[in-house]
TrEMBL record:
Coiled-coil segments on the chain, per record: none
Gene3D superfamilies xref list: 2.40.160.110
Phylogenetic classification of the source organism: Eukaryota, Metazoa, Chordata, Craniata, Vertebrata
Protein name: Lysosome-associated membrane glycoprotein 2 isoform X2
InterPro entries: Lamp2-like_luminal, Lysosome-assoc_membr_glycop
Pfam families listed in its UniProt record: Lamp2-like_luminal (PF01299)
Localization: Cell membrane; Endosome membrane; Lysosome membrane
Gene this protein is translated from: LAMP2
Species, as recorded: Python bivittatus
Stated family: Belongs to the LAMP family.
S-S bridge residues: 106-142, 306-343
Amino acid sequence: MVKLSVTYEGIDDYKTSTFMLPDDVSYVGSSCGNQTTGPVLSIEFGKGNSWTIHFTKIKDTYQGVITFTYNTKDAVLFPDAKKKDPVTVSANYPANPIKLNTVFSCSSEDTVKSGNVTLTFQNVTLQAFLQGGSLSSQKTLCDNDATMPTISTVDLVTKSLLVSPAGTSVTTELNATENSSSPLPSIPPEEKPGTGSYNVKSGAVTCLLASLGLQLNITQQVPLIINFNPNTTLASGHCGQTTAVLQLIDGNHKVDFLFAVKNSTSEKFYLKGLDIAVVQSTNATLLATNHTLDNWETTMGNSYLCRKEESIVVIPGYRVNIFDLKIQPFGVDDGQFSAAEDCVPEVDNFFVPFLMTIALIGLVWLVVMAYCARTQRSAGYRQF
């Protein structure tokens, strides 16, 4: 997210225009760079306004320079402007150079001021001079995240500033691009995590209920098994008409569950996204995001129940293991779970033991019949 706030001279007094970068933009001028110049992300919008970040490499670090040109002739963004001229300001971003092959991540609000312009960034994930065309697993946090490593639950879609090889720039969601069903290396967990009960409230009303054991299985670098401790795990989030979020934080480990309604007519909700953040130090964070999931589909007004272990691949090398799950992100009444839809049909829990019982009875019957037939045959021989 990029929010801009510009103070300009109006006809009667000074005014401040605050706006987000719009969706309808042009990326003319963006490029991946070459041997002499670094990559450039250039965005043009409105009437004569542009926002550009140009990355440069110095030894083993990189840094961007933002150039923002706003045109007070744009009456939509700058109504009643006294002067009708373009104005240009610039600033470094990130504020400090970032090591090469490292992703800069900032979930908190990060403010940059230049002249009469204030730029506010949030939920930023960027990397210049990519190796192999993929984002690095190594993270460098902004100062605000280093002291409070909690990703906002208001806007969970992590944005990445990427420049495509074709020379067009896109602002895109960081999702898993490989087949999530492909086999991944894993390490056996030392113990099953404890089951915790969590809730999210909207004001004084409980709007989301969850009970589960949570475990992270990360094999991206050094294999990690992380069990969330129910006694120290904090729950937060928010509830809406069509989306809901459950955020669980245990120390420096965080998982966000994003739920959504299928569509306006299906009356089904599902798990749409998972965000993982594991802070290892002030300059190293393991981060994985996937907002293209389609799990736990359940009828609205019901809860989802699954007693068996479930393993969900967020991105290759990052798994979330769920144990003894019961969750309801929509339609909670009086702080209680509604009727549950089981991930394993209820008939399975009854029918398999029933079949085994019938088979056992049949086996006993065959043994008895064979014994009786043998006894009768033996008695006939003696009479003869």
